[in-house]
Hints:
The chain is an alpha/beta fold.
Amino acid sequence: xxxxxxxxxxxxxxxxxxxxxxxxxxxxxxxxxxxxxxxxxxxxxxxxxxxxxxxxxxxxxxxxxxxxxxxxxxxxxxxxxxxxxxxxxxxxxxxxxxxxxxxxxxxxxxxxxxxxxxxxxxxxxxxxxxxxxxxxxxxxxxxxxxxxxxxxxxxxxxxxxxxxxxxxxxxxxxxxxxxxxxxxxxxxxxxxxxxxxxxxxxxxxxxxxxxxxxxxxxxxxxxxxxxxxxxxxxx
Length: 235
């Protein structure tokens, strides 16, 4: 299995897009936030960590080499802000047909990573919302994902920023179709559009409902790391 971290377009807590922070690896409880993300995933059968950023990767690369030298890691720079789908597409040369785990930097959830990545089919982590105005929504049909929507709101399940994809080859083919067709939404290539194409092609995608443990991960978020990482986050 390979893991992609798309730290792009103001979603990353590691490197600022303004001058508000000078530290590219801010600390939390005495350790860089990157450590809190990497540690639970190191317990999984990961063959490669792939970091996609829209800023120079030197600080993250140096940190990984100094602290996780035993792990294979690759670093890709997204030079144009073309959306999450475009970010993921940049990793196509690193993926063959092995399962793929995508973890967005703002994914603040309680999640059993072992169970999540042992699912027999592709799975999206979702959480229920009440008063928020979500961006990516999941609509179920007969217990599996039937439609990924943005508006109008017809469901209370919001995408929680974690995706386990078994059909990784097809995902990249769908991303390539979107990019070749210039299929943009709000000026960006959306990962959800590629996942919807997979569903349209007959791929079954399940959900795993999780609980939020705080606000979206950022340099100022104080609640994100309340999860029990040593227990791999139980649902």
